[in-house]
């Protein structure tokens, strides 16, 4: 049975959510049920139009979910959730379901999930995108990795692209037992190492995060190498680094990374208690996972890829959209915000921000001339201005709070 939060007894289970999101938000959020404490919580964020992909993902996840875990789902930004919540009540009664009529963004939505009763009482937290397929023993193996690496901040698996034939297998190969929704990490990694397929989606990022995320010169050099078809000496992503492939082949069990993809972040609850939640300045999305992972590094921890575990990712409609100048505006804004957020010292931030802003203006200005669309350039100026305004507002709020 579904209940409106406003009718709940306002005990300790709801206090933190009410304080963070305010009564107006709390009144627009529904919950399906409230479970007892579990060892771990899998937190999933979805939009209304992503229900088809999410249904497939939940079918897979609930088939491999151990008894000591719980799935918590937030339907983010939906005015009429009845059809979806009825489907969830019928198909996935074990899933704890929330709805926010307001779009909280990716960071805001994940923060809401982190503040739910199930997440606050869990020892381990797993953030999963709504379009992933995970193997048998995923949670068991990732928890084992976190336990065996006490200095770990965020950990994730190898992530492979979910190609159409992969999706077809899961959608059409299921029998009444649902066994077709189960696969092992070893079979997936072995197939990749033997035939190079499926293609990697994410294997981690270079541990030199300042060079990877804060150097405009490196950004230009990487793009030039792509155009010229050359292999860069410095690989930003592990998927293009031949040394990482060698280490996976050699059976290495821990590969350090600067950030863990937001589609598959695993961590102990104590990390949230120490470094805080996701930064909601990255709204509606973009770089919130990188900023969070770098904060974990700055706390003295290491982030890892665990190459003995693998998953599929990327089969909802978001992966098929092309970038236009408006999405480029968002990308420029969050790239600038990341520099302002994680780089140390005013000079370092100013130099990196200024170099990237100039590069963006030149690049997008040339694109505007080529396409005779001045809006491309003006949107770039707005992105730079918005990034500065958001950063200054945050710094002022921090100053006022102190």
Give the topology, please:
Elements: E1 3-4, H1 12-26, E2 29-31, E3 40-46, H2 51-64, E4 69-76, H3 82-91, E5 96-100, H4 105-114, H5 117-121, E6 124-129, E7 132-133, H6 138-148, E8 152-161, H7 164-172, H8 185-195, E9 200-202, H9 209-214, H10 216-228, H11 242-249, E10 255-257, E11 264-268, H12 269-275, H13 288-298, E12 302-313, H14 325-342, H15 346-371, H16 374-401
Parallel strand pairs: 3-4, 3-6, 4-5, 8-12
Antiparallel strand pairs: 1-2, 2-5, 6-11, 7-12, 8-9, 10-12
Class of secondary structure makeup: alpha/beta
Beta-strand residue fraction: 15-25%
Helical segment tally?
16
Order of helices and strands: EHEEHEHEHHEEHEHHEHHHEEHHEHHH
Uncertain spans? 1-14, 21-27, 319-324
**Largest sheet, strands/sense/barrel:** 7 strands, mixed
Query: Span from first to last CA?
Result: 44 Å
What Rg is obtained from the alpha carbons, in whole angstroms? Answer: 21 Å
Strand order of the largest sheet: 1-2-5-4-3-6-11
What is the overall shape?
globular
